[in-house]
Amino acid sequence: MIADHIQQLRKIIPANVSLLAVSKFHPPELIMEAYRAGQRLFGENRSRELLEKIQLLPNDIQWHFIGHLQTNKVKDIVGRVVLIQSVDSVKLLNSIQKQAQKSGIVQDVLLQIYIAREETKQGFLPEEIRDINPSNLPNVNICGLMGMATFTEDKEKVRSEFRQLRKLFDTLKEDTYSAYPYFIHCSMGMTGDFPIALEEGSTMVRIGSAIFPPRPQK
Ligand SMILES: *Cc1c(COP(=O)(O)O)cnc(C)c1O
Q: How far, in Å, is the centroid of ligand 1 from the Cα of 18?
């Protein structure tokens, strides 16, 4: 089942686009099914759950953190995931810098951009990104942007939000981040909207429901 879903998705998703399997709330057995199908990128949104799974699962899994990260949890996550996709404030960015410096590492992150006009979604406003100077963050590699579109049937609204995010990514890549060759990711698209995100230039889709069975309730 899970293996079939992954194979189907790989057929649709271009080879140069990363597929992140969002495994939040799912038990290690199901993650292993995906792993045995060749999947190595997995995303989790809670620090405790992630730490438990890291302990139990193979160590060649590349974990991404995709949830809201509280600054008091930064020390648990920095250095344990290959990418923190959900950096949504300058305070969090500075906290990651401090912890990465302490650990003597460089942490890869994405800046989460607030593209949906919905109360529930988090991130920087596009104009706030200008205040971030990557040269002040020697222990953080800003590797691109992440965003979530509004949860709606209105495909044109979703498309315009993704287009806005990709445009911001292209602009930043040309100016602020032109000297940063690792600024490569525009992470957008989930189960309900990834075909549109691919059309609008996503470099990484984050997919849970189209891979795993319905998520258990917390
Ligand atoms: C849960 C989640 C996803 C995956 O959602 P699905 O609709 O199950 O594919 C993607 N991105 C983020 C940030 C999430 O929290």
A: 15
Dihedral angle computed from the Cα positions of residues 184, 187, 193 and 196, in that order, rounded to the nearest 10 degrees? -20
- Quote the DSSP letter at residue 214: S
pLDDT tens digits for range 134-172: 999 999 999 999 999 999 999 999 999 999 999 999 999
- The residue to mutate among 68, 204, 206, having the most atoms of ligand 1 within 8 angstroms of its beta carbon, is 206
Q: Does the pTM of the predicted model rise above 0.85?
A: yes
- For the record, the structure tokens of 58 come out as 């193979």
Q: Which residues line ligand 1 (CB under 6 A)?
A: 22, 24, 45, 66, 148, 190-192, 206-209
Domains and CATH numbers, the chain: 2-207 (3.20.20.10)
Atom index in ligand 1 nearest the CA of residue 45 equals 15
